[in-house]
Write a structure and sequence with these properties.
Helix content is 19%, strand content 34%. With 366 residues, the chain is of the alpha+beta class.
C-alpha cells in the first residue's frame, strides 16, 4: 500500500491528479503540467517533496565514513551542501543524492524516494569500523520546495534570516513560517529556490503560509509532472530513468562528482578510475527532436540500421516549445551534431545530439 505525505489532504482539496509514485500517493499535476512548469519559470511554484528520504549521520567518523561511501568530498564547510553519487564496487550508481553538512560531526543525506529502503540497507552495511550513528528520519520529515524567480521574494516573508546572504548550495537552521526548519538554497529546476525541511506535523502550516506569501507573485502548487519537465530542460538525470545500478557516473557525465584526483578511497573508485582511463562504452547525451515526434523512455536509437543506444527520458520542453530527450549512446556518437533516429511505434524519428542544458535562461543563483 502506498504511503501518503503529510500534505496529502491538501493536495486532495486542491483537486490534484494524485497517482502512485515511488511508493507514495503524490500529486502529478493540479491545473496542468505546462502551466505549472511555466509558473516556475516565470514567477514561483511550490512543490511537496516529502516523499524524499532523509538520513542523519553523526559521530566523530562522520566525514571519513561519507568520504568512503560517496564519490564526492565530504569535508566541506558547515552550512554548505554538495551533490554526489553513491556507487557499487563495479561503478554502478546506488543513488544520487544531496548532502548537507550541519555540524563538524553531523550530516543530512537526502536520497531519492524510490531508493529509501535500498539506500538505508547499503549505508547501514558499510558503517562497521566507523564511529558513527545513522538515523532514518524520512517518515518524520516533510520537504516543501519553493522554486522560481520570485522564490526569494516569497520565502523572505516567512523568515527573519537574510536570504540574500545564503548562496547556492548553502543552508541554515532557523525559523521558517513560525516553525523550526532547515532552509537550503537548493533545487532541481534551474531556477532560484529554497527547500524547506520541517517536522512532518508542521508541513501543513508551512504549505499554507508559503501559498499565502506567494500570492502576490501568483504562486501555484506544482506537481511531479512539472518537476520532471523542469529538470529535463536542464538535462538533470533522474534515477530510474537516466541513471541506475547499470549506469556509472562517468557514463552519465557526472565525473565532476567523482574525486579520482584525490587520495580518498571510496566504494567503486577502482572501477571508475579504470573506466575513465579506458573511456566508457557509452555516454549520456542531450537529444533534440528534429521535426515532430515524442520519443519516450526506452525507445531505441539507431544510426542507419545499427542500434546505438536508448532514450532514457523524453518530453515536450514547455519553455522551449520543442521535444527534448536524454539518451545513452555509444561513446563515439556523443559529439554535438551527430544525427540519429529514435524508433517510436515502428516509425523512425530524426534526433540530433546537442549540448545540455537545453534551457539556460533560468534564475538559479550560482
Amino acid at each position: 500500500m502506498e504511503k501518503k505525505t503529510p500534505l496529502y489532504e491538501k493536495h486532495k482539496a486542491l483537486g490534484a491528479d494524485i497517482q502512485p509514485f515511488a511508493g507514495y500517493l503524490m500529486p502529478i499535476k493540479y491545473e496542468g503540467v505546462t502551466s505549472e512548469h511555466m509558473a516556475v519559470r516565470k514567477a514561483v511554484g511550490v512543490f511537496d517533496l516529502s516523499h524524499m528520504g532523509e538520513f542523519r549521520v553523526t559521530g566523530p567518523d562522520s566525514t571519513a565514513f561519507l568520504d568512503y561511501l560517496l564519490t564526492n568530498d565530504a569535508d566541506i564547510p558547515v552550512g554548505k551542501a554538495y551533490y554526489t553519487a553513491m556507487c557499487y564496487p563495479d561503478g554502478g550508481i546506488v543513488d544520487d543524492l544531496i548532502v548537507y553538512r550541519l555540524g563538524r560531526d553531523e550530516y543530512l543525506l537526502v536520497v531519492n524516494a524510490s531508493n529509501i529502503e535500498k539506500d538505508w540497507a547499503w549505508v547501514e552495511s558499510h558503517k562497521n569500523g566507523f564511529k558513527v550513528k545513522i538515523a532514518d528520519e524520512s517518515d518524520d520529515t516533510a520537504l516543501v520546495a519553493i522554486q522560481g524567480p520570485d522564490a526569494q521574494k516569497t520565502a523572505a516573508k516567512l523568515t527573519d534570516a537574510d536570504l540574500e546572504k545564503v548562496g547556492y548550495y548553502e543552508h541554515f537552521t532557523g525559523t521558517f513560517a513560525g516553525v523550526p526548519a532547515l532552509v537550503a538554497r537548493t533545487g532541481y529546476t534551474g531556477e532560484d529556490g529554497f527547500e524547506i525541511y520541517v517536522k512532518a506535523e508542521a508541513a501543513e502550516t508551512v504549505w499554507d503560509r508559503v501559498l499565502e506569501a506567494g500570492s502576490e507573485s501568483g504562486i501555484v502548487p506544482a506537481g511531479l509532472g512539472a518537476r520532471d519537465t523542469l529538470r529535463l530542460e536542464l538535462g538533470y538525470p533522474l534515477y530510474g530513468n537516466d541513471i541506475d545500478q547499470r549506469v556509472s557516473p562517468i557514463e552519465a557525465k557526472l565525473g565532476w562528482v567523482v574525486k579520482l584526483k584525490t587520495d580518498k578511497d571510496f566504494v567503486g573508485r577502482e572501477s571508475l578510475r579504470r573506466q575513465k582511463d579506458e573511456k566508457p562504452a557509452r555516454s549520456l547525451v542531450g537529444l533534440s527532436v528534429v521535426g515532430r515526434g515524442f520519443p519516450r523512455h526506452g525507445a531505441p536509437l539507431f544510426q542507419g540500421e545499427r542500434r546505438v543506444g536508448t532514450i532514457t527520458s523524453g518530453s515536450i520542453a514547455p519553455a522551449l516549445n520543442q521535444t527534448v530527450c536524454l539518451g545513452l549512446v555509444e561513446y563515439g556518437l556523443r559529439k554535438s551534431g551527430t544525427e540519429l533516429e529514435a524508433e517510436v511505434r515502428g516509425k523512425r524519428i530524426p534526433v540530433k545530439v546537442v549540448g545540455v542544458p537545453f534551457y539556460s535562461a533560468g534564475s538559479r543563483k550560482s
